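Supplementary Text 2. Reproducibility record for the structural model of the 112-residue chain.

All settings were left at their defaults, and a single model was retained for analysis rather than an ensemble. We include the record here because the model underlies the residue-level annotations in Supplementary Table 4.
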Amino acid sequence: MCDPSAAVVAEVELCGAPPGRTARLVLDLGYADAEVAAVARDLARGVLSQVEAMLADPATALPAEARAALAALADALRGQISGGATVTALDTPPARAWRAHRAGQGSVGDPG
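Retained model, structure tokens:
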């Protein structure tokens, strides 16, 4: 199993959306060591910076639902990368499906 702190996972249920609608961002480079974890956090910071810039720019034309999803995802992402927070392996149906998918094999919480 990979070290959960080597991946950055931000996942939020969307308020007002049909059940099961979830915004998620997974940065899992497939290796569990301090250097790879630092790279994943750096990538997450870059994504967060871009999302914050889009949300702050009044010229960004986004539907209200997309803006709300991005804002919620940014909040979750900010919580994952601020202060070196550790990532808890998610045990939700989407997370399990991701780990079962070929692209997610070897991801956080994968017993194989």
